[in-house]
Write a structure and sequence with these properties.
Blueprint (H helix, E strand, L loop, with lengths): L4 H15 L9 E2 L2 H16 L3 H17 L1 H12 L4 H14 L9 E5 L2 E9 L2 E5 L5 H14 L3 E5 L5 H17 L7 E4 L4 H9 L5 E5 L2 H8 L4 E5 L5 E4 L5 H13 L11 E5 H13 L2 E3 L3 H10 E4 L14 E4 L8 H6 L11 E5 L5 H4 L6 E7 L2 H11 L6 E5 L3 H11 L3 E4 L19 E2 L5 E2 L6 E9 L6
Parallel strand pairs: 1-6, 4-5, 4-7, 5-6, 7-8, 9-10, 9-16, 10-15, 11-14, 14-15, 16-17
Antiparallel strand pairs: 2-3, 3-20, 12-13, 18-19
Helix pairs in contact: 3-5, 3-6, 3-7, 4-5, 4-7, 5-6, 6-7, 10-11, 15-16
Amino acid sequence: MVIDQTLIARITAEVMAHMQGNSTQAYGIFATVDEAVAAARSAQKQLAGLSIEKRECLIQAMRDTAYENAALLAQMAVEESGMGNVADKTIKNQLAARKTPGTEDLCTHAWSGDHGLTLIEMGPYGVIGAITPTTNPSETVICNGIGMIAAGNAVIFSPHPKAKGTSIKIIRLLNEAIVKAGGPDNLLTTLAEPTIEAANAIMKHPGINMLVATGGPGVVKAVMSSGKKAIGAGAGNPPAVVDETADIEKAARDIVAGCSFDNNLPCIAEKEVIAVGCIADQLMAYMQKYGAYKISGRQIDELLGIIMTEEEAKMAAGCTEKPKKVYGINKDYVGKDASYILSKLGIEAPAGTKVIICETEADHPFVIEELMMPVLPVVQVKDVDAAIQLAVKVEHGNRHTAVMHSKNVDHLTRLAKAIETTIFVKNAPSYAGIGVGGEGFTTFTIAGPTGEGLTSPRSFTRQRRCVLVDAFSIV
């Protein structure tokens, strides 16, 4: 018997609505893309009729419910995806609730003169299709939801299927908060059964005015090839450079803290350390003091065989040289605890172990690939010039994030100019770059590939010019 997946999705949506005690209220959950888009378009038109002051009331309601449920959502995400840890995911949910900008991010520009008045205002696109990752399922929905609604849009989310329960939960919670605050239902929508096919349908749907993708290179490429206005937040491979002028103990503590944050799932997290040789051993000793477990020799090779997969290398036409080995990431270990990974080596991790460190060559797969797990290679180089050169190379031109520990302003400036990353953190854990212990707003959609950088409500608007000739110029 052939099972109709659309029917299953509709039944699931109806059951979930019934469980809320109100089968007529969708709270954003639908069986099909067409239904979700239609509901979002209707909600967006209602939002457009509300004042900015009322819009901000709705956003405050979203903030409050996201903050209140931060720990619950963190627990759900860890249990559902098997990635990260509850404490750090709670922090990320709270961060998104409190430090995502609202309507204050929308700035009007005006010119007045002999020929009247011209305004440029930031207007909504309409309905945005947002693809979210399994690594930050609730955080991205909270952050994008607040920012996109602040900009006057509605949004249909396409969450990763492996985090659908968490994503659906926060979408429902946010919609309930909006409705209780006097706003329209379904400003945020999604499917009861999100799939890759549904994501493709969202990208092609004529009712979607803009696409925002937070994830790997594949999904970013897809939205950029859609023919719609697209924002792509892609991968990174952030290096952490430590020179001889740094506070070595503080650098070690900060690197361990940043690398271990949510088990290294954030794309901003330190993925490799490049240390000037004269301080490298001291740095690693301090890292062990603050929760790093160092492996060496055969253990490194064994770990490579566990957390990475060897893939078939492609040879260029006419090439006679034996191709180098190509490695991929074993997704079973992404976002896992350091102690769990060490157990696969037969090592019982000491209490408080946060990160696995190992000294490698510059071309080791641990250095080249973005592991997204608390495994941190350390590469020694002769001087800061070599460190900067290598950091630029292993960042792969993603222009995402880089970290440097140094007291030499010239060294800091040189790396910043050479690597051209969206985020550059100096003398702090990487997470300072998104507002954890650092100043500035937060975002979980860091758009390097399409150039918007740290996205905020203004990223989800289009400029509209209003010209009034020979009037309202009173000078």
